[in-house]
Amino acid sequence: MINTKTGELLLLLICFSLISNTVISERPSTCPADDLDGGCGFHDSGEWEGEFFPGIPKIKYEGPSSKNPLAYKWYNANEEILGKKMKDWMRFSVAFWHTFRGTGGDPFGAATKMWPWEDGSNSLAMAKRRMRANFEFLEKLGVDRWCFHDRDIAPDGRTLEESNANLDEIVALAKELQGTKIRPLWGTAQLFLHPRYMHGGATSPQIGVYAYAAAQVKKAIEVTHYLGGENYVFWGGREGYQTLLNTDMERELDHMARFFEAAVAYKKKIGFNGTLLIEPKPQEPTKHQYDWDAATTANFLRKYGLIGEFKLNIECNHATLSGHSCHHELETARINGLLGNIDANTGDPQIGWDTDQFLMDISEATLVMLSVIKNGGLSPGGFNFDAKLRRESIDVEDLFIAHVAGMDTLARGLRNAAKLVEDGSLDELVRKRYQSFDTELGALIEAGNADFDLLEKRAMEWGEPQVPSGKQELAEMIFQSAM
Amino acid sequence: MINTKTGELLLLLICFSLISNTVISERPSTCPADDLDGGCGFHDSGEWEGEFFPGIPKIKYEGPSSKNPLAYKWYNANEEILGKKMKDWMRFSVAFWHTFRGTGGDPFGAATKMWPWEDGSNSLAMAKRRMRANFEFLEKLGVDRWCFHDRDIAPDGRTLEESNANLDEIVALAKELQGTKIRPLWGTAQLFLHPRYMHGGATSPQIGVYAYAAAQVKKAIEVTHYLGGENYVFWGGREGYQTLLNTDMERELDHMARFFEAAVAYKKKIGFNGTLLIEPKPQEPTKHQYDWDAATTANFLRKYGLIGEFKLNIECNHATLSGHSCHHELETARINGLLGNIDANTGDPQIGWDTDQFLMDISEATLVMLSVIKNGGLSPGGFNFDAKLRRESIDVEDLFIAHVAGMDTLARGLRNAAKLVEDGSLDELVRKRYQSFDTELGALIEAGNADFDLLEKRAMEWGEPQVPSGKQELAEMIFQSAM
Amino acid sequence: MINTKTGELLLLLICFSLISNTVISERPSTCPADDLDGGCGFHDSGEWEGEFFPGIPKIKYEGPSSKNPLAYKWYNANEEILGKKMKDWMRFSVAFWHTFRGTGGDPFGAATKMWPWEDGSNSLAMAKRRMRANFEFLEKLGVDRWCFHDRDIAPDGRTLEESNANLDEIVALAKELQGTKIRPLWGTAQLFLHPRYMHGGATSPQIGVYAYAAAQVKKAIEVTHYLGGENYVFWGGREGYQTLLNTDMERELDHMARFFEAAVAYKKKIGFNGTLLIEPKPQEPTKHQYDWDAATTANFLRKYGLIGEFKLNIECNHATLSGHSCHHELETARINGLLGNIDANTGDPQIGWDTDQFLMDISEATLVMLSVIKNGGLSPGGFNFDAKLRRESIDVEDLFIAHVAGMDTLARGLRNAAKLVEDGSLDELVRKRYQSFDTELGALIEAGNADFDLLEKRAMEWGEPQVPSGKQELAEMIFQSAM
Amino acid sequence: MINTKTGELLLLLICFSLISNTVISERPSTCPADDLDGGCGFHDSGEWEGEFFPGIPKIKYEGPSSKNPLAYKWYNANEEILGKKMKDWMRFSVAFWHTFRGTGGDPFGAATKMWPWEDGSNSLAMAKRRMRANFEFLEKLGVDRWCFHDRDIAPDGRTLEESNANLDEIVALAKELQGTKIRPLWGTAQLFLHPRYMHGGATSPQIGVYAYAAAQVKKAIEVTHYLGGENYVFWGGREGYQTLLNTDMERELDHMARFFEAAVAYKKKIGFNGTLLIEPKPQEPTKHQYDWDAATTANFLRKYGLIGEFKLNIECNHATLSGHSCHHELETARINGLLGNIDANTGDPQIGWDTDQFLMDISEATLVMLSVIKNGGLSPGGFNFDAKLRRESIDVEDLFIAHVAGMDTLARGLRNAAKLVEDGSLDELVRKRYQSFDTELGALIEAGNADFDLLEKRAMEWGEPQVPSGKQELAEMIFQSAM
């Protein structure tokens, strides 16, 4: 039993997460061994001199013929596509955790990365330095939004109060660095890393954990609101089960619903108008996660009367892990009125876990953008790059190359999707398929006024119905011609 | 375009489905070639002399030590388990289609089976003979229920009227053969075999197909009602899509909802009190089937206000194809108030399509029965053997061996589950995990009266929460000890 | 037990396969019901008047800006790419079975297609008419190669002798129609459709089936040779097991090796110089197929001393079913010296069975062509379109649209791959990664002359090795820039 | 680029791996924070007082009716089954890494466990204390074998020399603690945790890493030999690729072969007679691992002439990840003469990554033991428990419960398999299936003396072959009756 009554133990824990979040690199400016005096490494490593990314210029649009890895070939922020600027379609956001806390660790391997500005500690000073790096990164990339978990921007404290104080200090700096242009696309609370959440947060069988999770979410909503965040996300990585043998699934789902209700009430109480988003994922780390996919989450929201209060944050890699195409999940969310945000990444079709790769597939990006266009854009949501460098990509420039390639892929998807929309032949193919319902009987059916007696009567009058070709290959040919 | 205005074409079609439903065997009493004169094979093949299963005795319970393949070792129909007779827990049903229309054909191979009573035709006389075989099979097996699709018990006609007339004639015989003891567990309409349904029935883009499907379901509900059926099932094998590129998913789902509404209205109109069941399946034959899994189907029912009118028919093989354990799907259905019936079969964990094997795994059967016990049984639902002989199992006795083994497996599952319930230690392990909620604050939370302010206050008072071991291995040890 | 001693039964069987190979369409010129007199449908349906594809022109290259579905936008047969004509890189072939015998049947549905030239019979006359349609199709498509199974071009007879005679008659016609330009890319024997092969051909536990399979393959090699076929393929769809419980896997694999040895001997005996190809597939129809993937097949060939006598026919859909990318299987075959031919198709990444779709993904096609270029082309192998129209694609023009789109996709892949090769930066990235082995010690290691003592010595001298970034995102960016 | 020329950096790394290997628990006897002075925590934590597992008795056999979680119900070490003692069939081994270095960390969560004897450091003293705990664990469990990676028993040093010295010191203690009864089942080198191995060891594109890996394996073979180990294992967790775009697969495989050749030579040089084992795994951590499955590894060994020098260590969880049943992989290894050892664990059939759960399924265990019996046992190999407690199982007693349940499951599998062997009806069913080959022609075929001419002659004489039922359901019924 984890019985951590004393501060020492919590301290120990903080030390652990510090290290597991730390990285290795060529020339760490400070040896962590030196940092670890006085309570596991909280010392002020001081201000960073000069740029964090000294060799990297501001990324510019150079057009498709450019061979420069550090230039956009397809993303031209202010260019208009279908009557809207590209940047307003995309609303790109950088994920703080992958970009600044990713270490390259995996279940079989230690960290491979320690960026030059890291000092090996998890101190407040280090957190501030890292935050400054984040804003330089955003600036150089030309991106106006960022996303964060509470615990990846500020260190855990000995107590909840201390953690909150740490968070306040960092958030104040972030607010200052944001200036007038930059905002969080969304914030969230990290309810999965700490061992207290091993059985879940809102669905933990331990009431103390439930209360703790509530307190943490409360604070995270507050700081998201304070920073002008446009959305708040729930990813329930531990809200699920490892085995049904030890689980009361019904009671856990009831608790989760109560938790969400309380979050809605609190959001309203403090005047936070951002969208609450749930991010479905089928499994990993749990065997079964309650927010399995878009439809499962929608069922939960409907069952508990929460359907109007939440939207979904669809992640492409989570979609494919649940057995669906990303396009399917986006469309399912959209037609349930729930498409709120997209975690732009991709998985490997032969791999059964979350690889969180940068989306590099143009066809996939085109399908994604077709859904976004049908949705009239995502605002106040956007595209968050929930994508990480491969473990073996350890150069600072890899951070830029990956984001540039990911943004270009989606931008190219937008251009292709616009071509399809403007060409119109794919839409026309679909419209024609259903035109037999654009009739009097069709109207009756769609209004719920065609009973079985009437339908049988018609069926007998008509005899064997005519059934045309589905024209799938033609549809694929048209789609492909826009690539 | 399928434009079958003439009777000849429909006739052709009937001929096709006849043959694809036919089988090969040692000594067919009649050569189909001879049958095909005068309209593609409708001739009266006359009464069958004597028993259909001459060497097979009535299957008896002989107990676990028996080595007789044609005896029950674990299923003892009238023995009481947890206060109820085994037969009342199980409510077994034989699936007409697998048992009497299964030919062993697969995507790469022709039929391998032609039972001795088959004459190679799809005539009404053959349909009657087959129905008699069905009742002898039920009698010898000691099973009181059966399930059917309209088109597998009676041949398609040249017109809907003729098909209905064929169905009436066969159903009248079935009614007579049923006597007072035997009833359909459920009936259903086959909306997937005929090419008219290639784009779906209720979700076909062709209004004529929608109407035709409605007429067919109308009739199928009528005959199920007439036969005293206790449930009616919808399996939407073609209600889905092959590609989103040519599909208006939202419109199709709206149509499906209108279709179900009309079915509910019609059921009430004719006084059919049986349960309407939807059988989820993720895919196959379509790339995506709208009734993907229990949660997806529940979301659909809730979205369209149909939640009180339907329950689910959970099939274990469909569960695993959707990425869930069968136990998960049963529990999801149960806690959504939707567990109505079980299609008792199993898939192969390494195979990505529906194998519909007889369930032979005792652990799996025990998990299934734990859910059934928690549900207080399945009545008016039951266990339908939606399982087929392997393609290579071509002896008549294989039909009996498979059913006996499948029934024994579930019976053994019931005995094991009862042992676990009576022992109580697994339940106790679960109860203890959640006992921190059996408190004052727990009650507040579960009543929706604990807001984030209160919870934060408690979290700060309590400090770091205690988190006990999940005891998964102990739970597995206890579970296993009951095998 | 299948005990088909009499001619009647075999006749029956022929009738079945006829029907299961038959299709439904708008205006069949002849009602099959009329054909079935005199022995289940062998009548001469006479010559077809005029063109089989009357509205379809010869497909021409019109370039990327064309919107004409019946024109090539990327495949320009005589254009040179990397010093070779496109047609010589591609060596396209039409699969007779999918194109001319595909009916749209699936495990849950009847045939949906009956092309206008079909008369509903499986007669020799019909087989000839179909063969003529095949050559018109090849001509209009501008493709010089075709592939066939013995039983899909000519009907099964009452006896093996009769089947052989049927085959001879059709093959003589094909020879004539081929003229000087057209040849089979490969031929093969269909050892999976007939129920006699339900337990396998070469691996059947029944010696009579083994002998029958040998006789059938003998004949199929002969006719492939006669037609000037450049390769002969073995796809062992039934060579595997459904359950290990009833299987002696070792004995079956021994039999398979003996069978292959005999095939090699026979090929040499008759002077057939074409390549023998094995086509791996992991499963379906069997639970486990012995030629699981490229590596498994290579192990089999090596174990039994057959490695020099066979190459592989890699199918992309089979690759992904076995858990690999198509590119992986091609590369595995290539570096084992076994890349002989490609079955050009694709599966659906979310589907667990063989969908045999036309490859429409440009990135995938580019990866495929990179392997082909590295292999110096595929000759005497080529690309066979082992791809079928979707069940719902029932227009004659769909056959052309699908082939045109599939050929264009691969042609575009070739153009992209050539761009990558000519650009050189991807090759350079790879070369640099390994350059530390282009050294003295590297040469020692690669020659097998660096023992552990030497290596330890160097490791200690060198201290901690330097490990550069893997640059995966950069590689993906470069790859994508060629799309 | 990782350019760690200085000792400081290596020190840093050691600190990292220390922490990532550390755990959290109720009452750590020493606060790690105190340990971290003077160089990241290497201090001597002194001897442990008293027992490591004070409340845990020596585990005894109490028979199936026992409800004691800390007693064997099925494993009775000295009981004879099929003429051999149970302990000699099983040859159980405890995996040091899972049991003593497992922390409960996962890709989304920090460590959850810190056993009471852990002091938070990775010092030599701690390594010794842990080794003593290991031997008390073995003693209490009644198990005579253990398995280890070099780096999990002794801490990494600043240099290879220092690492080797650390290892020597720990190994000397282990040798002493082993006494006369206990031996390593096998040892291995950990070539995956350290970032230097991020691109592989034997297949790293960096020659320095190749040399370093060789030096590490050299030492690991030496200490395994010194400790009397019976086998030596290669698990190439990083020997594979993340993307083919940056990989020269052929050159990497050549390097791997050279590496294995050098290992064989070194083993012989020092007189180590243990078996060299390769452990296949399809993927994770890499996208593709070169030792994908048994057949792939066999192909590699044959291609490079290494087939006689290695056997395989089959892990059930790896088997299912590669798309095979565990039974299939065992049989494939067996009939290739390669079945050397079994990593006894299981995965979750719905999970796409390695869960390394304790095998609790009795049917699965029975299939495993059927292969072991056919193999005449595994000696000098055995069963290593490559299984870990669930992350949420944090009680010390859970370690015992899990091992007891896992051992009992396999013991029960052995008893069931013996029942099947003694009953004989399953073997008889298989023998009969193939009896048509126990004939003159069968002998000719199996000797390679039946050419296609002879076989065709027989096929024509015999006519249509008889094909009996595969009796799969009967086989399953027989199998199940032994459970």
Automatic annotation (TrEMBL), chains A, B, C, D:
Keywords: Carbohydrate metabolism, Isomerase, Metal-binding, Signal, Xylose metabolism. Transmembrane segments: none annotated. It is an enzyme of class 5 (isomerase). One of its GO terms (biological process) is D-xylose metabolic process. InterPro entries: Xyl_isomerase-like_sf, Xylose_isom_bac, Xylose_isomerase. Residues 1-25 form the signal peptide. It catalyses: alpha-D-xylose = alpha-D-xylulofuranose. Its EC number is 5.3.1.5. Belongs to the xylose isomerase family. This is Xylose isomerase. It comes from Deinandra increscens subsp. villosa. The lineage of its organism: Eukaryota, Viridiplantae, Streptophyta, Embryophyta, Tracheophyta.
